Structures are given as structure tokens and as C-alpha cells.
Amino acid sequence: MNRYTEPKYRTILDAKENEPEQLQEKSASSTWKPAYHIHPGYGLLNDPNGLAYFNGEFHVFYQWYPFGAIHGMKHWAHVKSADLVDWERLPTALVPVEEYESHGAYSGASIEIDGELYLYYTGNIKYNAEERSANQCLAIMDKDGNIRKHENNPIIEGVPAGYTGHVRDPKVFKKNDTYYMLLGAQRTNLTGAIIVYESSNARDWTFKGELDLDLNLPESCYMLECPDYFELNGQDVLVVSPQGLEAEEHTYQNLYNVIYVLGEMDIENLTFKVGSHHELDKGFDFYAPQTFEGKNKERLLFGWAGMGEMDYPSDKEEWAHCLTIPRKLDIVDGKLVQKPARELKKLRKQAESAELRLYRESKVLCSDCEQYELEITLDAIESDTFGIELFSSEKEGLVLKFNRAEKAVTLNRENFEEKFGGEYGYERSSELEIGDAVNIQIFVDRSIAEIFINDGEVVFTSRVFPMKESTGIKVFADGSLDCRYTKYPLMGKNSL
Ligand code: FRU
């Protein structure tokens, strides 16, 4: 095999003297680096990987390219925490130095087996700029945190007949004494699929076939990335990141999307009977999420708060992206809802609460809020349009606007000096039945806002890159409403 070379395919082991320190230095003074979100010290972060509560600690790995804000040789970076709040950076977990992972240790998930954490990932192989293949690989972390790549890697070499080199992102689970691996794949007719391998020991795998998943996705869907599967409240849930969907009103407005599917999985017979499926997050920057079982067996999720093929203002500081906060998933009224993990309450500092009434006006709730949680209830609403402006200043603002007549809520991020991603539009929206009251929970952290509406029924995850003075919060209404809120400044313990 001819090894395809390009400068972006070097590992951290090839760093020049002081190169990492210089990169870290370049972003150290950034006012956009999140304080409590997991982010790279330098370089580019994308998908969360290998998430686990293992041996009394939370482990988060993520896709990481060290040498700038581009997608190059992907490593697995590693952070851990006892409480989902205070994160400690550990040495890079997977550095792709082997032939079977010659162009990156791509995404994957973990499962605990006999007291060890099995980390499955994809060894990406590139022959040239266009042609590629993929190997599935295993690394094992023991209780002391030592990570070793499996001696028989790759555990699955190449891709099965009928699929292109785009086969990746293993998710392994166990059912009735058999291990199953889901992989995102592309058929040779260039449409997306999920394929399945099985194993009795989690190390030796055989190809089982394609999952029959009747989602009615359009032919334009050319790839399904990062499949995830779990049971929740007695239902089977599949979360997957399709590429190539067409935007519709209120849905699939980003270049790449994430959907969840509720239904019934019969993995032995390779079927997933679809009950319903929806887009998971309505914001600008959300992709490739992964879930895992938390300390109390609850289902937690981290997503990549970013989007591919787009330049971000922090690129010039040699770092890009962060993960979302951890979110707890539940199924309510046939919908998957996301709420901030309750552990995040530990970040709260002194609460400040107030009540106010608005009548055809806007009011400032705060003028210097950088990293905070805001719980706000808008009640007795007699307004057609109303909402909240975050990162607000004379010149800037992220506008969340509810529109009763249109039964919709929109988020607009056009109004920033450092606006970006305009080629994909500056507004995102969701359908929403608006009654007399709306509750909203918001997490803001310097360059990210995560907005949970009506107990997580609608969620917007979005990055913005404000000027230093854009730290205000405003509420507005074209009619009347009552506003009650509690605001907590949040600690920024995170020194990643
Ligand atoms: C999703 C993805 C995965 C792949 C990884 C590479 O964002 O494209 O399919 O494994 O990123 O970094």
C-alpha cells in the first residue's frame, strides 16, 4: 500500500520542538475559550468518543487534530472527571502510529467487559485524496487507566462487499450473550446505511448484514455516521448522523444533521421497526452525539458543538470547537427530550432571582454575564412575538424569538461582527405550540449557548463569537408578559 502523505497526516509524536506549547500559547488569551465546556487546549475537536462511567469516573474521549483548526490526522484526546464538572486532561489516548490506522483513529464507542473498558474505533486509511478504506480496531483501558491497542488489530480488516471505504464509527452492545457492532456505512450506490457485525467474545467479529431501517430517507442521503443505540423507558432508540439530507421548513437546516429514531430493534433479525423519528437538536452547531450510561444508570449525551465544512472565528487562534454540556435523555410524550445533567448544578454560584412585567418593550436582565445558567419562565403571555437576546450589546445579540401565530421559535445569529457560516443561513427554527407560558433553561459559556425550551422539548446548540462587551441578557415582547427568572453565574473550573 502506498502511504498517502500530506502535512496534515502527522501525529503529535512528530511535533516540532515547542510546537504544542506555541499552539497552546496562541489560544491561551482567547476570550472565546469556554470555561466549563470540554474543549481542546489547541487544535480541533470533533466527535465525542468512547464515553463511559467506568471504575467510578467519567471518561470522555474526543476526536482531536493537534496542529491547528483543520480536519487532519485524528487522535483520541482523553479527559476524565469524578463529577461531570471538574475535568482533568490525561495523555492522548490513541495516537495513530500503526499501518492499520495510518490516516487517523476515527470515532467509536466503548463498552465495559470484565472490568476493562473496550474502546472500539475506526482506523482510517487513505490511498490518495479520494480513495479510502477503513479498519475497525480495539484498544483496552484497564482499571489503572493504562490503554493498550489490541494485539490482533485490526479486529475487522477492510469493508464488506457492497460498501465503499466509508465504513466507520463502531458502537458495540451486548444482547443475549452476543456482542453486536453497528457501523455507519455507505453502499456502493452511494447511499447511507447501518451495517452490523457480531461476536461471541467482543474481539473476533463476523459480518452479519445490513440493518433494515425504514426511515424513508431521500436518495441524496449518502452516508450515515456515528450510529448509537440504547434502550430508554422501555423503547429502543437509535441516534444517527445522516449526511446529504435536504433542508425542509424547520428541519435539517444544517449541512449535516442528527436524528433520533424510536421503535423496536430486533438485532438478531437485523430489523429496526421505526415508530417515529425527529431531528435531535435545532441549533447551528450540533453533530455526531454519543450517549452512555451515567452513575445512576441514566442515559447521558455529549454532542460535538460544531459542524463540518465550515470556518469558525476561533480558527485563527489555532483551536476549534467544544463539546456540549452533558445532557440527560428521557422519552416524554413520544419524544426524546434533553435536559442538562443535574451534576451541572455544582457549577452554580450565588443565585439571583427577579420578576418583572413587560409591556411592548425590552428589558435588560444583566449587562455583564459571560458564563451562566438562566432559568426563565415567560407567563401570562399576551404577545405575538417575544423572546430573549443573549450576548447582547449595542452592536450584537443572539436572538431567540417566539412567534405565536407561526407556532415557531427561531434563533438568529446574524448580528455579530464575527458572523460566520452565512452560506448555510443565519437563522434556525423549530415548530412550537406556544401557550400561555414558556419555560427556558439556558447555558452560556463565552462562545456557546445551549437553549432548552419547555423542559428539553426543543433544544438549540449554537456557537457565537461575541465582542468582549457583548455580555448582556435582554427580554422583549411586542405585547405583555410576566417574566420570572433565576440566574446563576457558573464557575469556570475547567482549565483544559
Ligand atoms: C463525524 C466523523 C465520523 C468520523 C470522524 C472523523 O464527525 O466524520 O464519521 O469517524 O468524524 O474525525
UniProtKB/TrEMBL annotation:
One of its GO terms (molecular function) is beta-fructofuranosidase activity. Residues 37-340 form the Glycosyl hydrolase family 32 N-terminal domain. Keywords: Carbohydrate metabolism, Cytoplasm, Glycosidase, Hydrolase. PROSITE patterns: GLYCOSYL_HYDROL_F32. It catalyses: Hydrolysis of terminal non-reducing beta-D-fructofuranoside residues in beta-D-fructofuranosides. Pathway: Glycan biosynthesis; sucrose metabolism. Its main location: cytoplasm. Residues 343-480 form the Glycosyl hydrolase family 32 C-terminal domain. Its EC number is 3.2.1.26. The keyword Hydrolase applies. It is found in: Cytoplasm. Enables the bacterium to metabolize sucrose as a sole carbon source. Belongs to the glycosyl hydrolase 32 family. This is Sucrose-6-phosphate hydrolase.
